From TrEMBL, chain A:
<dbReference type="GO" id="GO:0051537">
    <property type="term" value="F:2 iron, 2 sulfur cluster binding"/>
</dbReference>
<keyword id="KW-0411">Iron-sulfur</keyword>
<dbReference type="InterPro" id="IPR002109">
    <property type="entry name" value="Glutaredoxin"/>
</dbReference>
<comment type="similarity">
    <text>Belongs to the glutaredoxin family. CGFS subfamily.</text>
</comment>
<keyword id="KW-0479">Metal-binding</keyword>
<feature type="region of interest" description="Disordered">
    <location>
        <begin position="1"/>
        <end position="22"/>
    </location>
</feature>
<feature type="domain" description="Glutaredoxin">
    <location>
        <begin position="214"/>
        <end position="280"/>
    </location>
</feature>
<dbReference type="InterPro" id="IPR004480">
    <property type="entry name" value="Monothiol_GRX-rel"/>
</dbReference>
<dbReference type="InterPro" id="IPR033658">
    <property type="entry name" value="GRX_PICOT-like"/>
</dbReference>
From TrEMBL, chain B:
<dbReference type="GO" id="GO:0009507">
    <property type="term" value="C:chloroplast"/>
</dbReference>
<keyword id="KW-0809">Transit peptide</keyword>
<dbReference type="InterPro" id="IPR036065">
    <property type="entry name" value="BolA-like_sf"/>
</dbReference>
<comment type="similarity">
    <text>Belongs to the BolA/IbaG family.</text>
</comment>
<keyword id="KW-0150">Chloroplast</keyword>
<dbReference type="GO" id="GO:0016226">
    <property type="term" value="P:iron-sulfur cluster assembly"/>
</dbReference>
<keyword id="KW-0934">Plastid</keyword>
<dbReference type="Pfam" id="PF01722">
    <property type="entry name" value="BolA"/>
</dbReference>
<protein>
    <submittedName>
        <fullName>Uncharacterized protein</fullName>
    </submittedName>
</protein>
Amino acid sequence: MATIANTSALHSSSSSSRTLNSILPPRKPLASRLSCTQRFNLSPNPLSISSRPNVSSKKRLSNLHVICAVKKLAETELVAVPAETEELAGKFPSSSGVYAVYDGNTELQFIGISRSISASVLAHRKSVPELCVTVKAGVVDEPDRTALTQAWKSWMEEHIGATGKVPPGNESGNAIWVKRSQKKSDLRLTPGRHVQLTVPLEELIDRLVKENKVVAFIKGSRSAPQCGFSQRVIGILEREGVDFESLDVLDEDHNTGLREALKRYSNWPTFPQIFLNGELLGGCDILTSMQEKGELTALFKK
Amino acid sequence: MASRGGAALLPRASRIKQKLQSALEASVLEVEDVSYQHAGHAAVKGNANETHFNLRIVSSKFSGQGLVKRHRMVYDLLGEELQSGLHAVSIVAKTPQEVGSN
C-alpha cells in the first residue's frame, strides 16, 4: 500500500497555492497535452511514497511511454547550488515546476514540486546544505496542480525506472525535505479574550516590533491570509526566505483592539504592515516595489 | 491606458483626485476604482462601492522622500476618506525623474 507522508507538498505555501488555484481560469483538460500514465497510487500530495510497491516497478515501467510538459530528468541540466544565497535566484527559476535535488556524490535525494523552484531550493539549502548540492529544475508552463503532479510523476517514474529506487527524500516517513513547509504559527497578544492586558497595547506593540527582527501584521493567519495584500506580503517574505513573526489583526479574541492601536502606533491606516528592526517598512505596495528593485534581500540580511 | 472609472468618476474617486491634485501638484494622477475586485471581501459589507482604489501619482513633491514618507503623504491627504469607508488604496508614488529614467 502506498502511503503518503506529508500534506504540505507544495513547498512555498499550501494556502496560497490553494487560493491561486481557485482564481486561475479553468484549464483545458490535461489529457490533451499530457499523457503520463498514472503508476503510483497517489493521493493529492504525492511527494512521499512507500518504497514497498517498487519491487516490481522497474518491470512495469519498461513499456511505459511518458510524454510530459517538462524535459526528461536525464536530459535536464544539473546546476550547482551557489554558496551565496543571493546568487541562487539567478540560477533557478522562481516559477512553478518540478525539481530534483542531488547530494555531493550526485546521488538523487529528493524530487519535489513547488510554486517557486528557487524558493524551495533556497529552503532546502538552508535546512540540509550537505544534501542539496546540485539541482535539476523543470519549469511547468501551465502550473495547475495536476500538471505539476504529472511532471513530478514523470521524473519519479523515470528515476525509478532507471535505478529501481525511490529517492530517499520521497520515501514515506522521511520528513527531511518537507518539514520546513510546516509554517510557524501566528503570534498572539493574549491567550484569550477574557485576559486583561497589564501593559498598554501600544507598549506591547512597541516591544514586539523591537524584539523581533521582522514582524508582519496581517489580515488572517499566515497559513490562511484573508486579504490579497496580506497574502502577497507573506508570499514575498517566504520567497526571500525571511524568518518572520506574524500577527492576525482580525483575531479579536487574542488580539483585541490591535487593529486600531497599531494604526495609531505606526501612523499608517491600512494593513498589512511590515516592521523591520522596529521600524515600519511599509505595506504591500512598498514591499512589492522593493522586491522588484531587488532591495529586499540585502535589507533582510543585515 | 484610461482608468476604468474614467468615463464616470464616482463621487469618492473625484474627491480623491481633487485632494491629491491640489496638494501634490501631480503631473500624472490616475485614480482607478478596483472595488469590484474586492466585492465579498470580509470588510466590505453592504456599501461595496468605492472601497478600493489604485493610485498612480507622479509628483515632484515626492523628491527626496522615502517610500514610507510618500505613502504617508497620500494617506494623510485621504484621512477623511479612510474614516468614511475607503478601505484600501494601492499606491505607486514616483517623482518625475524616476519616471523619466524608467
